[in-house]
Each structure stands twice: as C-alpha cells, then as structure tokens.
Write a structure and sequence with these properties.
This is non-specific serine/threonine protein kinase. By secondary structure, the protein is α+β, with helices and mostly antiparallel strands. Helix content is 33%, strand content 10%. The strands form three sheets. Strands 1-2-3-4-6-5-11 form a seven-stranded antiparallel beta sheet. The protein has a two-stranded antiparallel sheet with strand order 7-8. It starts with a strand and ends with a helix. The structure holds adenosine-5'-triphosphate. Adenosine-5'-triphosphate is lined by residues 14-20, 22, 46, 48, 80, 96-99, 103, 142, 146-147, 149, 162-163.
C-alpha cells in the first residue's frame, strides 16, 4: 500500500484512463482544514493519480493549484465530489468520493441499450449536473458514458458525473509540445474538433451523443479512424433510429446541432427530457403526450453560455468566424472550415491557453511537495452549487507566458498529423476503435435481453431529484401503480419488441471544406500539409481454394496416386491401339522376338537403301 500525502493509502487500482489511474484508497487520518471534506480515519475513498506526464509538467501543477477551489466547490447530487487535491513531489492526485458501481460505458456494454424512458430520465440527471456546473462557469468538456458512474443507491442506480476539471487540468501551454489529443473523438463537439471557441454547448453536444448511445447502444458517428469520426461530427447529420420515439429524437437532434448556439441549455435539456419521459409511455395522458410532442418549444438555447477560457471566445454567445487569428486553438484536430492560415501558422496569434484537449509532455520542473490547502468553497453543502465566483470570466492561466510552438519542422511530421496519430492511439483506451469487433460495444448489435430476465432494470434509475421536477411531471400515483406505469412505459420501448436496425452513417469522402486553401504566392510560414489520407486497406488477394478443404489426412497423396493410375491406363490403351503390340500378341510373339524383328526390318531397310544408291 502506497501512501499519498500523509492522509491516504492507495489500496488497489479501480481503473485506468487517459489522464491517470483511479485507486481505491483509505484515509489514514482526517484531512482537516486542507481538504473540502475532512473525512474520517479508515474511510474509503477513490483517488485519481494523474499520469506522470501531467504531474511532471509545471504548467499543470500550477493549474492544479489555481483550480483547486473550482474543483472542490463543485458539489451536486449528480456530480462525484472532489474531496481533496494532493501535490506530492511528482505526484498529483484528486481524492474523490468512492462510487460503488460500474461506469455507464461498462454498464451499456454488459446490458445493452436503455429504453427511451430510462435513457431520458438518466440523461436528465446528467443535464442537472451540467446545469449546476455551467451556472458556476465550469464546462466539463469530456462528457461520455465512461465518465458517468452509476452509484448503487439502495438497489437503484444513480448517475454521477465525474472527471470534472480533468480537461481543465490537462490544459497547458506545455501541451503544444507533445500534441497529444485528449478527448474522445466519438463525443467531441464540432467546434472543439475545429478549434473554434468553446462554451458550455460542447457539453450539450456530448449529452446528445450520450443519449443517442443510451438508446441505440452506439454513438451516432463512427469511423475507421479518428479523423473519419471527426469529419462526421463536422458534416454528417445524425439519422433517427427506428427505436427512438419522435419527441426524444427532437431532443437528440437539437443537442447535436452543428451550431453551438442552436443547442439547448442544460437546464432546458433536463426539463425537456423529463417531459419526454412522461409523454412517451403507454400510460401517458393525452396532455403528457401532447407536451412531449411539443418538446421543441422547451429547448431554448442558453443566452449566456459558460465560456471555456482560452478558446478564443469573444462575447458570450457570440461565435467569431472560424479560422480567425484570435480564436486559433493550437490543439485543434482539424483545420478550420474557413480562414486561410492554419492554427499552426506562426503568425496565427494563438492563445497558448487554448490548449484544450492535449496532454503535456514531461517537463523537468515538478511541483513542490505539499498538500493543498482547502479551497474557498471547501465547506459547501453536499447538494449545493455555489454561485459563480471569480472563475467565470477570469482565466487564471492567462497570466502564463505564451509558449512559442517553435519553428516549423521541415522534415518531421506536422503537429496536426502527430495529434491524429495520438488520437488514434488513444482510441485504444476509449474503445472507439481498434477493439476486437466482437467485444466492442460500439460496433456490435445491442444485446437483446428477454424481458423476464431484467424486468426491473430500467426502474433502478433514481427518479429525478425533487427540486428539479418540473411542474408537468406525472401526477403523483401510489407507489405500486407508479411502478406498473413505469414498467409499461419502459416495456413499450423495450428493444426486443422493436425492429432494431442500427444505422451506420454513410462513409463520406473527405469533405471539400477541409481542403487546403490555394497557396498564396508568399509562402505561409507554416502552412499545414494536405490532410493525410486515411490509410486504405490493401485489397485482399483472392482466396486460394484449398485442394483439401475437408483436410482429410493423406488425400493429397491419394490424389497423386489416382492421377498416376489414370495416366498409366491411358498410356496402356494408347500403346495397345497405336502400336503393333496387338499383332504381336496375335502372332504369339513375345516382346524380344518382336523387338528382334524390328531390328532385322530396320537393318534390311537400311541395306536396301544403301544398295539402291
Ligand atoms: N470516484 C470513483 N469511484 C469509483 N470508481 C471510480 C471513480 N472514478 C473513476 N472510477 C473508476 O475508474 C475507472 C477509470 O476512471 P478514469 O476517469 O480514469 O477513466 P476514463 O474516464 O476512461 O479516463 P479519461 O476520462 O481520463 O479518458 C472508471 O472506469 C471507473 O470505473
């Protein structure tokens, strides 16, 4: 058991992600004033030990220190609470509440898709968490099923959003040194992929993808490579699967709008999802069904979305044209759809703090050994989200000096290519690709389970929190009646009863919109090369038919023998028919007599010819 700081002991690893390893750990002594939650000796907690690359990066350590109050004050019933932050030598760690339950990615893989009602209610709770964090100016930026833990809450499962702030911690000018892409291609919003300004709308996009995946078992955009997936986020329209009721599809479609300003606010999303859940069941009243059909009216966008600092956002809600020098993001994966110079142009004027989705390289100067003092919001109540503090507009990292990306490497790979390669590598971890297809939940058909096996499964989800319940929720019913009602609602959309035809978005050729703009006469200092075409598979050589497909032992030898016998028979027949053998046999001559006759005839013939001359 390894100590972390003086207060915690790591016991066993619970899981490993792209940014670190999560451990089950035990509290040795109360953390006291230096943590948001003091804890008790012997208490079990979860500790995320950040990767060495992060811990060794001085920028990340500074960010860690600066952002502690943001992380520690973020409390909500659907957010995994961060209790303490530890910096110790080359170790950075977040101490969290231990959640007893699987993450949503694993749950989905093991149990197949949810019913529309269950998916809507679960996503509504995630939207509640987002609404609270957005109100506090915090954008998650890596929303995906793996970051939703399902807490066992007295037999019911309660979704808890985790990894808040990890993307923020990974932000670092040092990121431009390794260009490793962080974020999961399947869930990345178009504006993030393009390096455009990001707001809380990126989380709404992530929630839309997650909701789609909950009801279908796979995210809407898939591809053989990360680049292919990202292109789809930018240009492909999601298609409505047959199992998704129309009101739910309205919500999903609005969350997946390419233009962030057209996506609903988290608060409206939560409300709309509850209206949909109430209205799509078999026992929905006419008014509830009517309300669900009119859900589009509830999906108003956020007039003042929380801004992701350092992504070039101008005034809140305004989205400057992509590709402008001011909003270049050095970590973007794809070139902007418009605008001449790429983000790596040395004159692009990028903001180093805009490194939104990249891990830093190792830096020699590790942070100091210390246990952090408590943040300002350390004593916030467990269900309370504190009002926005100084964080909202001011980005503490702006004080950091910009890092020169360095001169263009003429012969090395372009950072953009390196990013893509890293993104592909990372997909191993995020299980978007390079998985055994039989094990990849995103590729296989959803598991269809007969209803009796898990009749109560969707009921396990905790009902929405009382304060968040909209006025138009179902009228109170006796518990039993309510349960039956829920069962009916959920069974109406149980996957086995529906003709499920998973739809893969069509593969698209590289979009012309990402083509390199014509080169100006003056060379760009660092014009990005044309996108590397996705590696094409070599056409398979035609399959060789096996001579012995049944693999019968000795068949090859037998075939040779048979062939020889046929040749011998044919040869014998030819000799018999076309030689005087028959006559010899008729005359009773043996072979040697016949042969001697031949020789004699030949000698006579030669003699007659020579005498005639
Ligand atoms: N607070 C927690 N309590 C219990 N288990 C946790 C907790 N946080 C994470 N885990 C477990 O640890 C695993 C790894 O978590 P982590 O957040 O590092 O993974 P990830 O989300 O796939 O990574 P990343 O977001 O960095 O790509 C999770 O799948 C989850 O099962």
């Amino acid at each position: 058991m390894r100590p972390v700081g003086s207060k915690y002991l790591l016991e066993e690893p619970l899981g490993r992600g792209a940014t670190g390893t999560v451990w089950r750990a035990r509290q040795r002594e109360a953390a006291g004033a230096e943590a948001a939650v003091a804890g008790q000796p012997g208490e079990t907690v979860a500790i995320k030990v950040l990767k060495e690359e992060l811990a060794n990066d001085a920028d990340v350590v500074m960010r860690f220190l600066r952002e502690r109050s943001v992380l520690l004050r973020l409390t909500h019933p659907n957010i995994v609470r961060t209790r303490d932050l530890v910096v110790e030598g080359d170790l950075l760690a977040l101490v969290m509440d231990l959640i007893d339950g699987p993450d949503l990615h694993r749950y989905l893989r093991e149990n197949g898709p949810f019913t529309p009602v269950a998916a809507a209610l679960l996503t509504a709770q995630i939207a509640d968490a987002l609404a609270a964090s957005h109100a506090d100016g915090v954008v998650h930026r890596d929303l995906k099923p793996a970051n939703v833990l399902l807490k066992d809450d007295g037999g019911r499962m309660h979704p808890m959003l985790t990894d808040f702030g990890i993307a923020r911690l990974a932000d670092s000018p040092g990121l431009t040194r390794t260009h490793e892409f962080v974020g999961t291609p399947a869930y990345v919003a178009p504006e993030s992929a393009e390096g455009r300004p990001q707001t809380s709308a990126v989380d709404i996009y992530g929630a839309g993808i997650l909701l789609y995946e909950l009801v279908t078992g796979r995210p809407p955009f898939a591809g053989a490579t990360a680049l292919e997936v990202l292109h789809q986020h930018l240009s492909a329209e999601p298609r409505r699967p047959t199992t998704v009721p129309e009101p739910l599809w309205t919500v999903i479609e609005r969350c997946l709008r390419k233009r962030p300003e057209e996506r609903p606010s988290a608060e409206n999303l939560a409300r709309a999802l509850r209206v949909v859940a109430a209205g799509v069941g078999v026992h929905a009243s006419a008014a509830q069904a009517e309300a669900a059909l009119g859900v589009a009216a509830l999906l108003a966008p956020d007039p003042q979305p929380a801004v992701v600092p350092g992504t070039g956002q101008g005034a809140a809600g305004q989205f400057p044209p992509a590709g402008g020098a001011g909003d270049a993001d050095p970590t973007q994966v794809l070139p902007p759809t418009t605008g001449a110079p790429g983000p790596y142009g040395r004159n692009a004027g990028y903001d180093p703090d805009a490194a939104t989705s990249v891990l830093p390289s190792a830096a020699p100067d590790a942070g100091p050994t210390q246990v952090l003092p408590a943040g300002a919001g350390a004593d916030a109540g467990p269900t309370q989200v504190l009002p926005a503090g100084s964080y909202g507009g001011a980005d503490p990292t702006r004080a950091m000096p910009p890092v020169d990306p360095g001169p263009p490497q003429a012969d090395g790979p372009h950072p953009w290519q390196t990013q893509l390669r890293a993104a592909r590598d990372r997909n191993d971890q995020t299980q978007v690709q390079y998985l055994d297809p039989s094990e990849d939940p995103l590729r296989r058909r959803p598991t269809r389970r007969p209803a009796p096996q898990q009749p109560q499964q969707p009921q396990q989800y905790a009902p929405p929190q009382a304060p968040a319940q909209p006025p138009y929720r179902q009228s109170p019913q006796p518990p039993q009646q309510h349960q039956q009602h829920q069962q009916h609602q959920q069974q109406q959309y149980r996957q086995p009863q529906q003709p499920y035809a998973p739809q893969r978005p069509p593969r698209r050729a590289p979009e012309p919109r990402y083509q390199q703009p014509p080169q100006a006469p003056q060379p760009q200092p660092y014009a990005p090369p044309a996108p590397e075409p996705a590696p094409r598979r070599e056409p398979r050589p035609p399959r060789q038919r096996s001579a012995n497909p049944m693999r019968i032992p000795g068949l090859g030898c037998l075939k040779g023998c048979l062939f020889l016998i046929v040749i011998l028979v044919l040869g014998s027949w030819a000799v018999w028919e076309f030689t005087p053998l028959k006559d010899w046999v008729a005359d009773g001559k043996n072979f040697w007599d016949a042969a001697w006759d031949w020789v004699t005839d030949a000698k006579d013939w030669i003699a007659s010819h020579s005498s005639g001359r």
